[in-house]
Design a protein that fits this description.
The protein is mostly helical. It contains eight helices and three strands, in the order H-H-H-E-E-H-H-E-H-H-H. It has three domains: 59 residues, no CATH class; 84 residues, no CATH class; 33 residues. The chain starts with 13 loop residues before the first helix and ends with a helix.
Length: 204
């Protein structure tokens, strides 16, 4: 029986990272039980309890990288299986439909923040030059779940904290209530000028 053991975070997929996050050490009465649960996830073993103890002892030192946090470098573009992908510029730039595509499975499946990473990826990560298509959501979610966690974790955390990598494609909308009186029209005009000034100041 061949057992493939990851030896660094770059060998760990998004799906595996999510599964690891769900392992609660407090639920295991022994260190062996906890270590075995981790090995089962990392090595894609159906039933780790059938492995000889010698195998566990041999694998354990190889996964010592788990004691360190994975890389969280922001990477705006990546290539996977010969296809180039890029991130949407801002989490705040997604459309209503795209936001629903993220929110719906999270609510239906009652996902934690970590378990929603593949959902976020399916919407925020795009094949170059293509727009999001809800029909491809499940396919993309499965595909991006196989990505090395080190390729996407930095961006996921950055976007979920409200960050953005660019504003060049972000449309500017000014939402104004419809008011017909002359007085309110003058007030709205003043607010518009003030908002423009604030945007200039913020943008430097």
């Amino acid at each position: 029986m061949e057992i493939v053991v990851p030896t660094s975070w770059s060998d760990v997929s998004v799906n595996q990272y999510q599964a690891l996050a769900e392992i609660d050490k407090d639920k295991y009465k022994t260190d062996l039980g906890y270590t075995s649960a981790i090995i089962q996830v990392l090595c894609n073993i159906d039933n780790v309890n059938k492995l000889p103890l010698s195998a566990i002892n041999e694998i354990a030192p190889l996964i010592s990288f788990l004691s360190k946090e994975p890389e969280t470098k922001i990477k705006n573009k990546l290539t996977y299986k010969g296809v180039n992908y890029e991130w949407l510029e801002s989490f705040n730039a997604i459309t209503v439909g795209e936001a629903i595509s993220i929110e719906l499975p999270i609510e239906l499946e009652e996902l934690s923040i970590t378990l929603s990473y593949d959902v976020v990826l399916a919407v925020m990560l795009r094949e170059n030059g293509k727009e999001f298509d809800a029909k491809d959501f499940n396919k993309n979610r499965e595909l991006f779940g196989e990505l090395p966690i080190t390729e996407v974790l930095g961006n996921i955390l950055f976007f979920l904290s409200g960050g953005q990598t660019s504003t060049k494609h972000t449309e500017d909308y000014l939402i104004v209530p419809k008011i017909t009186t002359t007085l309110h029209q003058k007030r709205c005009s003043k607010w518009k000028r003030l908002l423009r000034k604030i945007k200039v100041i913020i943008s430097g």
